[in-house]
Design goal:
Chain lengths: 511, 511
């Protein structure tokens, strides 16, 4: 058996493995502040790459970035009862604006500085952005309003898990207002497609885009769509959502426009977001027992050069050799951008550094020792195929010029391979179930990585849906979504109600 | 007299003019949330440009970005008494984590969800980042730690002014830890120089870099340095600061390392930051009575193309002509990046759009009508020279190819010209004062735009400095900084104490 770089394998304990990747790859750590994490340089570098690539796509579809206040007055929430109920009211509330010494060496909130109206730290910004839309929109000429914001938000969580569920997290939230429901629906689906394409092309994470069932809708939404990714333990992770809000928020917030005929109408609005949760998806989709594997498009460094130094005079020549290699690589272009190559000169042993970068998941690690230099070579390790068939580390001496010429194709190849792996996992782990008994059997205790099942249903609503949700909950299951692009449902009955089915939905366990 | 685009001139009322620019250029607006502003697309676009350019410089000097929690437990502040006193304790305090309905249709903080330990919304992150440094640093091999964060911070302000002083603002804060005081001092000055260079090269804002007097030091710092910019009303704006913290924070937070000899030592730390305040400086340095003038390097759009459409069939050809012009411009490179050209197709009159972009301060506005198209021309308006000598708008038909060939040089020229204007203003408005009476006379009531004075002083400390500060305060003056690179002080006495002077300092009114 090959010794792996992490202290625990996916097979042995997936949850402990996930924590180990986060820790060993220097992605994040507990902060000492309840429910909040510190995102470390490698983790934040991945987030910056996600921001850059997604922001380009958000702007290319006509949206502009803005910034809205962190604090939302309590009264704003009272306007939208359904929305607030949905958030279960678990929010951070600011009640004082000053500290004072208590006379015993401690600090306390100053009772004389109590706010007249408490402020809520934004859990999402529909309320405060809607208020701005109401100011901005007067006439049909002002529409559509297409806005996005990159921000931190806070939802008080009792049980937290790094990247997946933290009290504070980073995200982007798009908010738009339109003259018609059709246009707003189109926008909702357009951004869902932006997310799907982004997840697959940039993150290499294959996802299923579809509509969430009524019970999983965003509070106050008319329809909620999601992209669902499959983790290596078969569980689903909702990796992004897009909401058609109809006139619900516009009505609560008085977002109206005068149409070409001079009459006042309510706007139709949308909102959509993805968050640092995406990093959790990348870990659980691409990680292996040696740590993370970062898709090249979102890797802060795509090629890391580790010089093998021995505290001898020859070292200087090796460093020079590596510097010029780094400069040559930076002149290459891969996946539409200049290659990002780092020369790691930190004072540590080369083997320690090599394994550090393997655990971090840099797509390509280059080692350069005296022998490589003498032969005009570099030693190449590809993170996506770390071992040979005999279990030895697959590191190969390659002519330096050949490597430089091939680096672009190699990075392209790693990116594509990770995506294909993910796609095959999704395709290979969704199975149909023709009745509830088959569903139950599929998710019976002891079945490892059951993946998802694909079932026919009649799309019940209200109490009938509640009953379905209850039955699934007993099996720790949820309806993930009804995939887009269904061409109607073949004859058959709903596995829950027995009524004629109208569509197929995916069911699985989820994070 | 030329009619200007803004309702108020700088001359008539500088403060009202500042607000008018912010409003008419769509930079920001009041949010309805006390002390917090909404940063609108054009204002946020400028901030994104500032972030991109400054972030490149921060990374090029070896720093990595991270993200730390928004919330800081109260107990963290109790460790660093001097630091907390300095912040006057005006901070937003989170005391509850849930809302509940009060039974009368309102929401209240749930008394059952009171936090055991209140959380402070970060006013700055020394305390929480220092706690991370204490975990990260064990040995000299872990040093230096070079970290930066882009984040929102909150300091409860009683009197707010958009961009200059808001309760919530956006900034970057760098935090570093070093093995020696010398290295930390070098870092402090290196980042001061990064700020100076950035302000001048990218913002076109000439600044004076120097050390703040003891009374203006960051709470807990050993030395604080600033860049000071001069506004068009002669007031100073502190546009960035860099702090050498010595071992003060390391001692309070136990940031220690084992040196090569095996002994434990305290680290020396630094911190440095700039904020959305820089946008206030850009407005007050470059704005004129027609609105903002944005330096091309930080302009979200450098060239805006306004087609003159008349709801006739010919319109389609004009739009095509403009689209191909936009594509040609995007292929040009200016100031080190591809030209950012926008085609404005919003449904509004061309004249309205032209003046909208003038007020926003787009460096170049292009108008294209039927006649321009027929002649293969474009009509060019340069924002930095809007009027001819006769007071008419200086818009000129130019051959399209000529314009495309010259756009790069033109943008370079606008950038340089704005900087030179700013530099001349600073150089022309700093005058020496040889004694306190001269200082008093310079700032006598009724003197318009007095600028700054440059005086000799003995650098008093403690109560002697307090006395100086008091005397200046009576004249509404403050010591801005002691400029870097002084080659010793020529013979003479301190204008405050009469003792031998040791350096020169700048004195002025300030925002």
């Amino acid at each position: 058996m090959i010794k792996r770089a992490l202290p625990v394998t996916r097979e042995a304990d997936f949850s402990a493995w996930y924590q180990a990747v986060i820790s060993e790859a220097d992605l994040a750590e507990e902060s000492g502040v309840r429910g909040c994490m510190v995102i470390r340089p490698w983790g934040y570098g991945i987030w910056e790459r996600i921001q850059r690539l997604l922001d380009d796509r958000i702007k290319a579809t006509g949206h502009e970035n803005c910034y809205f206040p962190l604090f939302i007055p309590l009264s704003y929430f009272e306007k939208e009862a359904e929305h607030v109920d949905g958030f279960a009211k678990e929010m951070a509330v600011v009640t004082h604006h000053r500290l004072k010494a208590d006379g015993y060496g401690r600090l306390i909130p100053d009772p004389d500085a109590k706010l007249e109206e408490p402020l809520v730290v934004r859990p999402t910004s529909e309320m405060v952005i809607g208020a701005a839309f109401a100011r901005w929109v007067q006439s049909w000429r002002d529409l559509p309003v297409l806005i996005n914001q990159w921000a931190n938000v806070v939802r008080w969580e009792m049980r937290t898990r790094m990247f997946l569920r933290t009290s504070e997290f980073l995200w982007q939230e798009g908010h738009t207002a339109h003259a018609t429901a059709d246009e707003a629906r189109d926008e909702t689906l357009k951004m869902l497609e932006v997310y799907r394409d982004f997840a697959e092309e940039c993150l290499g994470v294959h996802v299923i885009a579809g509509e969430k069932p009524e019970n999983e809708r965003f509070p106050g939404a008319v329809a909620t769509y999601s992209i669902e990714a499959m983790m290596q333990d078969g569980k689903a992770l909702q990796a992004g959502t897009s909401h058609f809000l109809g006139t619900n928020f516009a009505s609560a917030q008085n977002i109206r426009f005068q149409n070409a005929g001079g009459e006042f109408e309510l706007c139709n609005t949308t909102s959509w977001g993805v968050s640092t949760r995406m990093i959790g998806a990348v870990i659980m989709v691409h990680g292996d027992d040696d740590g993370l594997r970062v898709p090249p498009m979102i890797a802060p460094w795509q090629v890391v050069i580790v010089p093998m130094l021995r505290d001898v005079p020859e070292d200087a020549a090796i460093v020079e050799y590596c510097k010029s290699l780094q400069a040559e690589l930076a002149k290459q272009s891969a996946l539409g951008e200049p290659v990002r190559a780092l020369l790691d000169l930190k004072p540590a042993k080369a083997a320690t550094k090599r394994w550090g970068w393997v655990k971090k998941g840099a797509p390509i690690v280059i080692e350069v020792g005296g022998r490589d230099m003498a032969g005009g070579n570099v030693t190449v390790i590809r993170r996506d195929r770390l071992y040979r068939e005999d279990g030895k580390l697959d590191s190969n001496a390659v002519a330096r010029d050949t490597f430089v010429a091939e680096v672009s194709g190699m990075l392209h190849d790693v990116q594509a391979k990770l995506h294909v792996e993910s796609m095959n996992r999704v395709k290979g782990n969704i199975v149909p179930a023709d009745d509830f008994a088959a569903l139950e059997a599929h998710f019976a205790d002891g079945v490892k990585n059951p993946g998802w099942v694909d079932v026919r249903w009649s799309k019940p609503t209200g109490p009938a849906l509640d009953k379905v949700v209850e039955r699934l909950k007993a099996l720790k299951l949820t309806i993930r979504n009804a995939p887009m692009g269904q061409t109607g449902c073949d004859d058959g009955a709903c596995i829950f109600t027995g009524e004629p089915a109208v569509e197929r939905v995916l069911i699985g366990r989820a994070y």
